Amino acid sequence: MSRAKQQTQNQQKVFTRRLAILGGLKGLMVGTLAARLYYLQVIEGEKYKLLAEENRINRRILFPSRGLILDRFGIALASNSPSYRAILVAEQTPDLEATLKSFSEIAPLSEREIARIMKARKNNRAFVPITIKDDLDWEQVNAVELNLPDLPGISIEIDQKRVYPFGGITSHILGYVAVPSEKEVDKDSDPLLRQPGFRIGKNGLERQYDLPLRGQAGESQLEVNSVGRVIRELARQEGEPGGDLVTTLDVGLHQYAHQRLSAELAGAAVVMDVYTGDLLALASTPSYDPTAFYRGLTTDEWQELTNDIYGPLNNKPISGQYAPGSTFKMITAIAGLRAGMSPHDHVVCNGVTTLGSARFHCWKREGHGPMNMLDGIKNSCDVYFYEVARRAGIDLLADTARMFGLGSLEELDLPGEKPGLIPDTKWKRATFNDIWHPGETLVAGIGQGFILTTPLQLAVMTARLANGGYAVKPRLARQISEVPNDEGTPVFPRIDLPEEFLRIAREGMDQVTNGQRGTAYRSRIDVPGMEMAGKTGTSQVRRITMAERQRGVIKNADLPWNQRDNALFVAFAPVHAPRYACCVVVEHGGGGSAVAAPIARDILIECQRRDPSRRNPNAEGGRREMP
Amino acid sequence: MGIELHSVGSQAGLRLSQRIKQIPWSLVLLISMVASIGFAMLYSAANGNTEPWMNKQILRFGVGVAIMLTIAMVDLQRLAKIAYPLYALALVLLIYVEFFGEVGMGAQRWIDLKVFQLQPSELMKVSLCLVLARYFHGLSYEEIGKPWVLIPPTLMALAPAALVLKQPDLGTAGMLLLCGAGIFFVAGVRWWKFAIVFGIGIAGAIGAWNSGFLRDYQKNRILTFLDPESDALGAGYHITQSKIALGSGGVWGKGLLQGSQAQLEFLPERQTDFIFTMLGEELGMVGGLLLLSLYSLLVLYGFAIALRTRSHFGRLLAFGVTMNLFLYFFINTAMVMGLIPVVGIPLPLISYGGTAMMTVMVGFGLLMAVYIQRDFRVGRRTSNEE
User: Fold this and answer.
1) Whole-angstrom Cα distance, residue B299 to residue B296?
2) Is B111 in contact with B93 (CB distance < 8 Å)?
3) In sequence order, what are the beta bridge partners of A159?
4) Which of A34, A134, A589, B216 could cross-link with A595 by S-S, CB 3.0 to 4.6 Å?
5) How far apart are CA A396 and CA A388, in angstroms?
């Protein structure tokens, strides 16, 4: 009995002791749990709070609305318009296919579109909105809104799209916006570029002023659950809309110039304020439709545009390079005056001049007879200017050309500008490793040979002649984001030449249009006070051989289009108080007096009627708010 | 000899009214407090709704309390008597589910009884405590020193553990083994024998790993546990999100219904296995420590009853069910905190679900029965009794 009792006591003792040991162990284990809680929730708490927030919050970029591009009177050239998009939330419709079928009665869906929708449905969760159709028209939007009960899950979303009210007429200046390429995304850290559907300026002013037009992205912080469903918006910071760009253009004049030029196959027309450098019109034909670039071109469309011989993608006023032909003769004349020639010196033209064994022909086979400088310009006598060029020499000729803005970039705020080419002895040495031949000077004297100029440069040259020798520079942006491009009318440095030289050149141009038998007399402006002074130019694009000259030079009309002469005309008006300079180039149009001069005349008449430089843009009409 | 000392058999026990008087109401209160925290969490888990979880859980708890109190009234002698048959039944059922059980969550665990689903492994948790208590109750302290005496109880623990592991249910198997080991330990099994078993266990674990006894997903869980960040969106997703939720709760928590991880469904299984995480996120470290303290109090309560009980059967039984409770909450909380692998053990009294609730409540019923009859002896050989 006592032994059994002993056993029982032992049993109890061991039990108590071991329970105490286990109890202690459990205490330690619970302590570990408490320590772990402390570690996770206090020591590492901040880190996990951050991770929890990252889990919970989904940031969405809000697109700022892109700044408008306006003409000098506030007419919108590029604006934003609401674009209506039908979206579908699959979980809200009991029968997706039936809903799509009802929808296509309002706006037809192609099989490809339906396949795309079905694929999007499969790849996304049921609450993710799928775009059914972009860019619905107003009637379709109304029809959808009216039939919403039959279209479960479908709703209309409003986006903004870029619109160009003047379409192709302004496409060369404005360019277009499109989805950025990978390279562009890499170069730009703006998160907007990483958003699907965001577009940046790809060409023209849209590209040049992309940053101020673009604006600042906004942000919306959304609370999402673990599968990405949006629970609510936590915070919203609206972006800053892009600034508006006011250009120097008078779109009415520009449109007129474009239409007038469109009578020919391909060409360029520039109208510029000779004092401010404001470009009032900058037309290039043919042109292209910018909306095609907005939505993205197909390969075929791209091929068609690039293979078009009339060069619709080429912005001819700034990137078309043409031999200036006779429009260069004012430069030659001034170079001659600089070389000490008197304007009264006579040169006798009998149709041809010789230098060594080479013969240089005048455009008039029978010759002009004795010519002084005014006669030379008026009649555009080649033989006279061969002689002037010979006396001036190529380096003085080139130096004079550069003073008037030829042969280098005008630094216009528009991408794609070409520098043209003014050759001299140094250039010849560097490029061909050859000496300059005297005959080349003669050819250069009539604006042929190596010389290349852009229509913009010719307009600048004319403006500098017209404004009395100020080195005016062209510009397109008048005001960006409410800040004027510069203070009032810019003051340009004077060209270092006697005013007398320029006056002689201007007088010659006056004779061209207003003197009887001037080469452009037929295209003169006879509206009192609007008279223009100008200079024709017909530049060869092919070499006329001796054999052909003997047989008789082939008429332009008998040549294929791209071998015909380029027709040029430069002018300023009004002749006695110049304000506007104009340059018209008709590619392979034939004679400058017959083809280019009438166009320039019409443009300058229209220009002076509108008189955009003297109308105060802010007083009259001012900036109109565009929707 | 006082009347308590030879109160063998039901005749000598207390009358029902006496037993009711003895019910430890403070224990019932403590249990209810823990369960109430659970109700609040289920309310929050449903985004502030009593449906679909909280109301059902309250109902289950009510049924659980009734069962607990009913069991508390049962005679200890009777419990000792049914220990072997009950264990045999549980074992048979375990074998049965191995072949005919309902498959859920990739494991065979249930018998569908139409009215409710029976998990034999849960029944086994209670039966094992009873049967081991009964077995060691029949041994003297000297007899425990003999190795052969330990063979039957070892088999009693290993057999169900192996069957459960086969289901496969790593967590429950572990709980059965640890609970059994605990009873062996307090029953007085010598230290060195544990050392041997421990060594064999490690060898066995290595063997199990290499032999393919562990399913791939079990291996993955262990691997993921060792480095959860390695697979944050795959196998490690649960534990990573759980740590984020817990950690972001901070000291005071984000407030009930305010846990972004739980409410926005980043937290998996927030109403069941990961409910402690949600509590930690919404009520913070303060809430977590409070709950751990309540559990610790329950465990201390159980141990106090065990120490206070005269019969060896009662002591061992009280210890066994308390050990079970401890393992439940320790494994669950340690797992959601990333201290041990995710093994699918719910948080007792709090996680949504009936089976764990029943096991724990039955355990508390047994604990109360022991408490009420703490001064009574239980015969060594119950089969000869009467």
Assistant:
1) 5
2) yes
3) A83
4) A589
5) 11
DSSP code per residue over A398-420 = HHHHHHTTTTS----SSTT----
Same domain, A550 and A434: yes
Q: Does the beta-carbon distance from A14 to B289 stay under 8 Å?
A: no
Q: Cβ of A627: how many Cβ atoms within 10 Å?
A: 7
Q: Which residues of chain A have a CB within 8 Å of the CB of B141?
A: 7-8, 10-11, 14
Q: Please calculate the CA angle A421-A422-A428 and round it to the nearest 5 degrees.
A: 95
Burial of B227 (0-12, 13-18, 19+ CB in 10 A): exposed
Q: Provide the pLDDT confidence category of residue A483 given band limits of 50, 70 and 90.
A: low
Nearest to B125 by CA among B296, B362, B368: B362
3-class secondary structure, A230? strand
8 Å CB contact between A597 and A569: yes
The residue range of the domain holding A564 is: 251-306+316-610
CA angle B120, B121, B126 (to 5 degrees): 95
CB pairs under 8 A between A and B: 137
For residue A185, give both structure tokens: 């995304």
Model confidence pTM above 0.95: no
Residues B132 and B160 sit within 8 Å (Cβ to Cβ)? no
Task: Using alpha carbons, select from A579, A582, A578 the residue that is nearest to residue A603.
Answer: A582
The tally of domains found in chain A comes to 2
Q: Which 3 state secondary structure label does DSSP give A579?
A: coil
CA distance A257 to B46: 72
Q: What is the pLDDT, as a whole number, of residue A58?
A: 80
Both A224 and A100 in one domain: the answer is yes
CB contacts, 8 Å: A12 with chain B:
312, 315
B288 vs A37: CB contact, 8 Å cut-off?
A: yes
Contact A165, A76 (CB under 8 A): yes
CATH number assigned to the domain comprising residue A334: 3.40.710.10
- The pLDDT assigned to B3 comes to 32
One-letter amino acid at B267 equals L
Nearest-CA residue of chain B relative to A42?
Answer: B250
The helix-helix angle for B275-308 and B237-249 (nearest 10°) equals 80
The string of pLDDT tens digits covering residues B75-131 is 999 999 999 999 999 999 999 888 777 665 555 566 766 556 678 888 999 999 999
Q: How far apart are the first and last CA of chain B?
A: 20
Chain A neighbors of B265, CB-CB under 8 A: 225-227
Distance of CA B37 to the CA centre of its chain: 19
Three-state DSSP class for residue A172: helix
Please work out, in degrees rounded to the nearest 5, the angle formed at the alpha carbon of residue A541 by the alpha carbons of A281 and A564: 80
A26 to chain B nearest CA, in Å? 8
Closest C-alpha to A151, from A134, A138, A132, A135: A132
Q: Where are the domains of chain B?
A: 10-379
Of A565, A571, A481, A566, nearest in space to A530 by CA: A571
Q: Which residue shows structure tokens 């380096």? A: A395
Q: Is residue A30 part of a domain?
A: no
A95, part of any domain: yes
Cα angle, residue A291 at apex, residues A289 and A296 outer, rounded to 5°: 110
- The structure tokens listed for A447 are 């604006």
- Provide the CA A91 distance to its chain's centre, in angstroms: 45
pLDDT < 70 positions in chain B: 1-13, 102-110, 112-117, 221, 224-235, 381-386
Q: Which residues pair with residue B239 across a beta bridge?
A: none
Q: Are residues A235 and A255 in the same domain?
A: no
Q: How far apart are CA A25 and CA B182, in angstroms?
A: 12
Residues A240 and A260 placed together within one structural domain of the fold: no
Residue with tokens 């249009």: A513
Distance from C-alpha of A539 to C-alpha of A596, rounded to nearest angstrom: 12
Considering the domain architecture, whether residues A262 and A238 belong to the same structural domain is answered as no
What is d(CA A154, CA A95) in angstroms, rounded to the nearest whole number? 12
